[in-house]
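Quick start: load a record and inspect it. Here is Contactin-associated 2-like protein:
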Amino acid sequence: MPSSCEDLLHIGHKLNGLHLITRVGTVETVYCDFSKSPKDPGFEKSLGFGYDTRSTPTYFYVQKNTTFSTTNVPITFEIGKVNVGKATDLKTGMFTSPRTGKCFFSFTGLARFPASSAYKLRLGVGLYLNGYLHGRGWI
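Running the structure step on this input writes:
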């Protein structure tokens, strides 16, 4: 996990915006302005551990390192790099919020499609709350 905007820059991030970094065993939200040099004022702005919230931090960073091609089931994970608050269950793929309120989720995935196929190929990921679809992304 990166620990600064400069780390993010070194691993290839170029878009200005909000990012999560690790600091002293926890996860912090920062704004990175990659149009500036790392030494310039305003390159990195800390938003803290729970910006505009009244709850304790709950963060998770999980990875799947095996092929997954099942549809309409939760994605389970093999690796849990961060699980602050113990709200994510690797075996079920479920996140259980310890409190009511707003949550921010970020997802990155890699889809591999065959070079030739008679079928229209697509990848969809849905975000469900208590069994009801609240958001979906397609490629």
